[in-house]
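=== RUN LOG ===
request id: a7f3
mode: sequence -> structure
chains: 1
length: 379
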Amino acid sequence: MKNILIINTNTNNDYWLEYFDYLKIKNCQLFFLSSDKKLLASLKKRGYWHKKIFCLFKNKLSFFKKIIFCLLRPLDFLKSFVILSYFKLSKKIDTLILFANSEKISYSRAAKLLALKVYWINSPDAELSNTGFCPKNLSKLSRLAQVIVMLDKQKSKLLEQGYDETNISKINIGIKKNKLAEQKNIFQSIAQNTTQGNYKKFYTVGTIQELSGDVSHIEKLLHSTKNCLDVIPHIQLIIAGEGPERKRLSWMANKMEINNLVWFVGNHRHPQKWLSNFDVFISTTPKPNIKDISILLMAMCNGLCVIAPNNAGLNEIIENNHSGLLADIPEGDDLTSKIINSQQNFQKRKKLGENAKLFANENFRLQDSLEKFYATLEK
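=== RESULT ===
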């Protein structure tokens, strides 16, 4: 039985809850430190030991914060050593799992001094080159830990930055098959794509993503949808997602005079209900996080034809023209062409969906990922 301390000050942690629950099933004792309110609420609901911690230094640092961080390193090390010493003595922890780069820098050296096994989790959206922490510092520290990645592109990037290949383990993203959930809301009739006579009312293009930050890729999708009208007059676009940019995107659709065929349906607990009624699923984000990739794989598991960005590192998930279509999203004409092509060629769309379903079900099963994760911690 392992006693594991998990320190995670990142956000968007829903995906990892399945992994925590699996460790519990394997009789591991779990203790959590986090600054993410949503994660803490989920941990409380599940009955895990947890405490809130304050995190001054997030992954992206200004020049001023870099200076402060360097000046405070001795105190930061002392703080980390005291915290880990407490957990080792009182909770008998033998393993430490770290998510954010700030945590990796703060706790890894102290953990090794205390003879703890250290694991770094690098989610697909952990872009080291975009953080305020020097990749060289992280690559040196990585020798003290086992680094877990989820995509081959991550491993290649880490090797370029000087990581030792023997310290890197890869586990595939895992997708859980869910039964279709009843989605009782005013948009249910929108998602339903056929009449009682099984006659197609619309060609439904769907996407599920957050509407925050830079949403220029969603703007491209709006333009592409409008450009498809001459060839696909019965097209409709469903955007399932929430965020501060929703109002502006809705206004844009109105200005483009396509508001009668674009539906912003907010966040929903059961994306499966929407996926089952899409004709084609489109992921447009140029830097997909683990949630985006999970939803993409869920669409593939549903046998949907999927269209995704060409330069977003998704090549190991989508083989172009075999298990999906890769498009140059910045070039709106290419996305328009891919949507039209998917609608005009039903047999090709069906075959792409079948291949996608087969590939996703064979390579991205949640149970396989959970077992590989646990086996990595057992090394």
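=== NOTES ===
The domain at 3-174+366-378 is CATH 3.40.50.2000 (Rossmann fold).
Confidence is low (pLDDT under 50) at residues 180-186, 195-199.
=== END ===
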